[in-house]
Amino acid sequence: MKAAWYEKQGAARDVLTIGETDDPHPLAGEVRIRVAFSGVNPGDVKKRQDAFGIGMPYPRVIPHSDGSGTVDAVGGGVSQDWIGRRVWCYGAQSYRPFGTAAEYTVVPVRQVVQLPERAPLEQGACLGIPGITAHRAVHVAGSVEGRTVLVQGGAGAVGACAVQLARRAGARVIATCRAESDKQIASRAGADEVLLTDGNLAERIRALAPAGVHHVVEVAFAANVKTDMEVLAQEGSIATYATSAPTPQIPFWELVFVNARIFFVGSDDVPVDAKVDAARALSQALEAGWQGLDVAEIVPLDQIARAHELVERPTKPGRVLVGI
Fold this sequence. Notes:
Blueprint: E1 2-5, H1 12-15, E2 17-20, E3 30-40, H2 42-49, E4 66-74, E5 86-89, E6 104-108, E7 112-114, H3 121-124, H4 128-139, E8 148-152, H5 157-168, E9 172-177, H6 183-189, E10 193-196, H7 201-208, E11 213-218, H8 221-231, E12 232-240, H9 252-257, E13 261-264, H10 272-287, E14 295-300, H11 304-312, E15 319-323
Parallel strand pairs: 8-9, 8-11, 9-10, 11-12, 12-13, 14-15
Antiparallel strand pairs: 1-2, 3-4, 3-6, 3-15, 4-5, 5-7
Helix pairs in contact: 4-5, 4-10, 7-8
């Protein structure tokens, strides 16, 4: 099969290779997907760059955890009914060497989700890491039904998913965005109110939620924790999945005085049952008419280095996909 891989870490154009490799075959409990689209996430880029200082976990890595396509083979113990289904998958390269940047990928059947008929395959490749991260960030502190949820960065991939999932779970959702042009993304996802991050953001959030925000989904913990603290209700919670600085300072006593709870969410390590719940909720949202995430660009597999560079330095909002 044709695939992209790297055997050392570094700049995309220096380390990503396109070539032929053996077709994978599903083992017991696995399915093989003929990949149509492979989603590129910031985490895929960081692994290739060795941004976390972990080094090469395997001698060769076929990148990308998210993808979509059609099941064409199954391993032992998996129903033949899966063959021919349009699906999306998650975690293909989570603690595993070979992801979706290839003509075929093999994943455990529990990480494969049937794509609703109304949803295009492109959308399926967008959902995995952003959707699972968002679902966990929304629900990790408990039910949000009837509560006010603040989604910082509501126009990003995780943020837009979080807006949609929180709204479907019965929350009132306030989203923030950095640019006027991004407000419509958060609004389309289902936000009740969308605020720009300029000016006195905490004051404007408080005007919308005088009793405070019950839960925050946070994209830039170091930059925003002071604002989050200022708007948090007593016994409120913050779920953060990214930070603008690796060693953030926090307003400790202020958070103590409101009995705040802080959760740190990494999609690879979300509990298995929570991933299954997230996948189910995302598919239900698509079935109910959610249009999903914007796609910024689809890049051919031969140009995968460019796809990684578009994630590193975005030119417009939306997901970057590799077309296989």
